[in-house]
User: What shape does this take?
Amino acid sequence: MTSSTYAAHLAQLNVATLRHPLDDPRMAPFVEMLDPINDVADVTPGFVWRLVEEGTGDATGLRPAGENVIVNLTVWESREALWDFTYRSGHLEVMRRRREWFERHVEAHMVLWWVPAGHLPTVAEALERLAGLRADGPSPRAFTFTSSYAAEVAFRREQAVPSGRAARDARTTDVEDAVAL
Assistant: This one.
């Protein structure tokens, strides 16, 4: 759990634009890694939840961001737990090879945000956070690993400044608080 006085979890969305359809032989190495990597995620300390399509073990069949865009939506107990899974597990191999399977994004493709413990974000909520990050840059409402905010800052800002330009403008007053992360 976070060192927060709030019961908070970290939600994460990333989107990836496929170079080829998932049933294309050039995508086979990625598809073959899905189950093993999802199995690692499921038992990683700090893992809470991940989006899966009903009747399957992953979310690759869901296409809420476009026909050739896959989504990954997860919840973690802390930023550190997500970081460890992303960069200190077998998932790193997928990251290293991502250019074989996915187009390079010219705008943000990953967003993080704090949620109350027990809340499972919807895809619509996640896509709205990504859109906010793309439009307004990092804020306590939508951020990245390199521009993260403490849960206390996010929850305080959520109550005072709901979103958009006001959140971006308020970000500068939160710098001291965010350093604590």
